[in-house]
Specification:
Number of helices: 1
Oligomer: single chain
Strand content: over 45%
Structural class: alpha+beta
Strand order of the largest sheet: 1-2-3-4-5-6-7-8
Number of strands: 8
Distance between the termini: 55 Å
Order of helices and strands: HEEEEEEEE
Amino acid sequence: MKRIIKGSIIVAAALLIAACASSMPPNPLIGMWDVSIDTPVGVMAATIDIKSDMTGTMFSDDLGAATLDNVMSVDNSVTFQTTIDAQGQMLTLDFTGTVAGDTLAGNFDTDFGAIAVTGVRQ
């Protein structure tokens, strides 16, 4: 009898944990984003892909692919870093922004000042 009660408690706890996990809203940053980066030499299009494990990449026809580091999202605030090769010069870009529904807005902070970024979810 004790084994049946113990087993029932374990099953109930597992179901409760599963129900709580499935009811949590997904992180608003996860997904594919089409972004526009307003650089000093003109607007550059890129794609940002954020996975559920908070890893990501940024791809641009002009700059190729770059890994995103330290991807974090708390509520609607977003931060990450990436390093790009800009015509032979390695630049670290620190992004700070927000997600509101299917839009992303913020800035890459660089040694040359802030560069505006806007985006929409694919």
